[in-house]
Amino acid sequence: MIKRVLVGLLLFALANLALAQSDPLPSWRDDVNKKAIEDFVGDVTDEASADFVPPEERIATFGNDGTLWVEQPIYAEFQFAIDRINTLAPQHPEWKTTEPFSLVLAGNMNAFLAGGAESVVPILTASHSGMTREDFEIIVRDWLATARHPTKKRLYTQLVYQPMIELLEYLRSNGFKTFIVSGGGVEFMRAFAEQSYGVPPEQVVGSEGKLKFEMRDGQPLLLKLPDVQFVDNNAGKPIGIETNIGRRPIAAFGNSDSDLQMLQWTWAGSGKRFCLYVHHDDAVREWAYDRQSPIGRLDLGLDEARVKHWTVVSMKDDWKTIFPTK
Amino acid sequence: MIKRVLVGLLLFALANLALAQSDPLPSWRDDVNKKAIEDFVGDVTDEASADFVPPEERIATFGNDGTLWVEQPIYAEFQFAIDRINTLAPQHPEWKTTEPFSLVLAGNMNAFLAGGAESVVPILTASHSGMTREDFEIIVRDWLATARHPTKKRLYTQLVYQPMIELLEYLRSNGFKTFIVSGGGVEFMRAFAEQSYGVPPEQVVGSEGKLKFEMRDGQPLLLKLPDVQFVDNNAGKPIGIETNIGRRPIAAFGNSDSDLQMLQWTWAGSGKRFCLYVHHDDAVREWAYDRQSPIGRLDLGLDEARVKHWTVVSMKDDWKTIFPTK
Fold first, then answer.
1. What are the residues facing A179 on neighbouring strands?
2. How many CB pairs under 8 A join A and B?
3. B273 dihedral zone (left: phi>0; alpha: psi -120 to 50; beta)
4. H-run or E-run covering B214
5. Is any Cβ of chain A less than 8 angstroms from the Cβ of B217?
6. Nearest alpha carbon to residue A76 among A58, A64, A61, A91
7. Is B48 exposed, middle or buried (0-12, 13-18, 19+ CB in 10 A)?
8. Cβ–Cβ contacts within 10 Å for residue A52, how many?
9. Which domains does chain A have, with CATH numbers?
10. Are A311 and A67 in contact (CB under 8 A)?
């Protein structure tokens, strides 16, 4: 009897030791930023703490491009759209002489990007519409399974940030519900968010095209129309959060000025809050860019982060590894 | 040793017996419709069954008005809007002479409702805008805490359907994620859905007004504007499901023609599906209405339910009790 109790105690001690020693954030260097994350999670999950937050209110929101995966030299979804325009071009001879399609087909990316929204929106809508939502999902999945990043030469899903994957999982294991809140197209992101990030479709908030419900041969279809319904960027992010989640996050994670309003909205809530910017300062392993970059510009946000003492993660200093090994 | 094993077996048997005997749907009569629900849940949760559905795909969607709580003689949210217009009237002397406001202030409900969307939309937008989302939530909660149904004399939250509350809980305890998908305003419903239905805000899909993000004295605000962003009714329901959930439900529950497209969309998916209509046929305990009712009309849906062998619940015959006792 005594022997059984002793063996039980030993096993209990060993299990707890193993638990304490297994670091849930192994790709993060043990420094002040990692500690800030752990302290926040510790505080809001400690029932004895004044900062305790019940599980149902533990909402954490993440940008996608530049926060969870690479966004240079152009957003993956832009590259998808460009590839799709090239695929569809034979059916659209008029594109050869119509901007912005002609710029894309000629590979003149600088001129295309210089056109701003006027260039980008027609390319995005033309590449994202004219099919059912199921067919679009297949098109995106096929592209993700084969398209390689122009310089990294990896699949895009291999260019997610390993430390952020660990962070998502760490938050969820502490009772958080993790959401993506991104300017990216909601259906584009849902094609890989569950597998790559462990974020199910219903927790992905993004920009939306208009949809049309139609009965065809007695079968209901949802058709993707070439019109924008909602842009989930900048001030659109808190609006997307309110519309889709209906609760203010207690933690928000971004990397650019387009995340700033989401962080402001999160920060302004009552009780303990956590805001984090990923700062792209690793020119060797990833890219180094901030205030001047046309893609993922971080300028106003960097200033506000300093004033409000938000956590600013240095990819160079805080992350042991950037990408998953496999 | 043998004694310990026997005691263990006994406890195991007793626990399973208790489990088998505790009916998760006690307000449902033991008939063919209850059995249809139980059979469906049994099939999709049985890993050995060809109809097994993994938990992450167990999405169930419910209408609200007339499916989860009463909708006669007018939707609760209409009554809320009317009450709010009366409250605000002193600040709007022009309403006395402007339709549809003048009709509402005069209590001329028939003339008001006869105006259709042209009457209803201005009343809904005027009552649902001009404040922050937080202030609106307080206004709705205050109303729900005091307003009584005109004939039942109970609080609206006491006029939820007890059998449907049990059904929601039964599905969740079997790994389903339960969503509300309703033409009602998303923020109005979120003010009570978690407490009344166990459905968290992020699982409520509804009609949306436009929102504006604004910084005021350094504080970010979300202001409710008097414009419609999205109407989650009829064909809007599958669109709202696609936009907000991103997965096709495997089970859908409604009570009117405005749920028909949601049920069609659910039914048309591959694998085992379950569609259910609540039929209001209990003039004594609730109301009896279907094909001719201006509120909650069930006409096309009733025909389609028969053709497709959807479950049509008779409130009169299938439900032992309608409302919670407390």
1. A61
2. 92
3. beta
4. strand B204-216
5. no
6. A64
7. exposed
8. 13
9. 25-71+155-318 (3.40.50.1000)
10. no
Proportion of chain B in helix, strand, coil states, percent, rounded to 5: 50, 20, 35
Least CA distance to A239: which residue of chain B?
B211
Residue carrying structure tokens 């937050």? A53
**CA gap B313, B37 in Å, rounded:** 11
Q: Is B59 on the interface with A (CB under 8 A)?
A: yes
Q: How far is A14 from chain B (nearest CA, A)?
A: 27
3-state secondary structure of B15: helix
| Of the candidates B109, B114, B118, B115, the residue with the CA atom closest to the CA atom of residue B82 | B109
Instruction: Name the stretches of chain A with pLDDT < 50.
Output: none
Q: CA–CA separation, A296 vs B305, rounded Å?
A: 51
Query: Which candidate, A315, A326, A325, places its Cα nearest to that of A282?
Result: A315
Instruction: Please judge whether A187 and B246 are an interchain contact, meaning their C-beta atoms are less than 8 angstroms apart.
Output: yes
* N- to C-terminal Cα separation, chain B: 49
A239 interfaces chain B, CB cutoff of 8 Å:
yes
Q: What pLDDT shows up at residue B209?
A: 96
Is residue A190 within 8 A of residue A199, CB to CB? The reply is: no
Instruction: Name every chain B residue with its beta carbon within 8 A of the beta carbon of A265.
Output: 213, 220, 222
| Bridge partner list, A65 | A69
Mean pLDDT per block of 10 residues along chain B (326 residues) reads 59 58 93 98 98 98 98 96 97 95 93 89 95 97 98 98 98 98 98 98 97 96 96 97 98 98 97 98 98 96 98 98 93
Among B282, B283, B276, B244, smallest CA distance to B260 is for B276
Closest CA to A132 of A64, A57, A220, A71: A220
Pick A247's closest partner by Cβ from B201, B235, B236: B201
Instruction: Check residue B96 and report its DSSP letter.
Output: G
* Residue B189 host element (H or E): helix B186-197
A200 contact residues in B (CB cutoff 8 A): 56, 247
Distance CA A122, CA A141 (A): 22
Three-class secondary structure assignment of B22-40: CCCCCCECCCHHHHHHHHH
